[in-house]
Amino acid sequence: MRPEALPAPPRAWQALSPAWRTAVLRLALATLSLMILFAADCAAMVRQWWDISTYNHILLVPAIIGWLVWQRRVEIAKLEPALWWPGLIPFAGAALIWLSGAISGLDLTRQAGVVALGASLVPLLMGPRVTAGLLFPLFYMVFLIPCGEELVTLLQTITAHITIALVHLSGIPAQVDGVFITTPAGLFEVAEACSGVKFLIAMIAFGTLMANVCFVSNRRRAALMVACVVVPIIANGIRAWGTIFAAQFVGAAAAAGFDHIVYGWVFFAVVIGVIVAVSWRFFDRPVDDPMIDAAAIEATPWLTRLSALRTGPWVIVLAVAILAAVQGWAHAADRLAAPLPPAIDLPAVPGWTRVDYEPLIWWQPRAGGADHRLLGSYADASGRRVDVFVALYASQRDGAEAGGYGQGALMPQSDWSWQASAAPIAGGHGERLLGAGRVAREAQTWYRSGDLLSGSNARLKLATMRDRMTLQARPTMVLILSAEDRPAQSAAGAIRAFVSAAGPLGPWMDRLGGMNQGR
What does the record list as coiled-coil region(s) (predicted)? Predict the structure, then answer.
């Protein structure tokens, strides 16, 4: 037979059964519909992947998920897809996650809800057996969510501790104050970019993939994941120490420039190479081993019982109704706005006098979208000075969130840097800031909404969720009391004295902002 007369191999689509073709088209249409319905959240995620270096690695995750599904295609095709009504349970749960993010103004939760909705389409439209076969790719979708920036402060502190220990071991005299390290070569800051967070979360994503593809033993998988957390953190501390050590000989500027090049282009690859090289001899998955076993999935008794709960197209109607309900609820919550006074003013405080605002380095907290803002200074007879910042919101919504990312006492892209946490005063959230490497400032933050008075952003989010879930409109106030360390005053001591003179902060804030609800 001539080569051209040989029968052509069947195309992948033509090789699928009619049931699978229908299921794939149904899933593709549902996924596209979700992307259109939640286009704003999807676009926000993609912008973060592209614009924020911490999340650049996520650009590869969709391709990785596609590859993971492709690996399983032969075995998955042996299973029968079916509409499955219990799939409404995870679908509704994902919709509630999105709703909680929408009504609290927490973008991370909104985006997690969208990703969870996408994953929950598989059990709903394909059934439990296909879901079992695609369990790891579905789990890996969690790495589509741009998260990890919340760890920056913790990682800065850990890196500073590792670095100062290594600096002392190398015989360099040094002092550490929060995330600032002083050596004979100058002052070094373990800045947000030096925290190693983008390295850490990328390593966790890589390690999770490697654990599934290269290992069968759960014990070895767990050991790899521990290494993918511990090694990057220690390596980042060593990198920071290397910069400080080199600066003692070549100067701080030259060492910092070299560090950025090495860390950006070489360091990450070297650490990955070390982890892969050490792990290589422990790989226990055979090269020709299928990623899943369709026969074993088919024979699993509990999956057989669950598969009997298949249903008809009406389940799609219910899923659409769930999405319409949460979208409508979120829209109604977005329209909430509490009445506010036309103007607010800083009140008199016994023993303290309003004075001109004259900081050594300009400091002004950020409160994007606030309806009212005030910034002023008080002084007492002993010369202590306290700066007072107030922001009042009629509602909490996208672009107007008290405690949102980049909001609060630390101004992004300014002369001020976060230095360390400070002891809380009267339940506030305390931070130490350093301006231009020479001016120390303490800031204490409180949030007020209804009966809530707390320095916890998480508690504010929960209070906001409660109010918007019940469609109650309450104003929200942010109060930040701050003071500079000066020769004649301790910043913390000045703030404590001011709080004591003002009296209970809750009623004081209510009078300031005309917030008398609930009393």
Answer: none
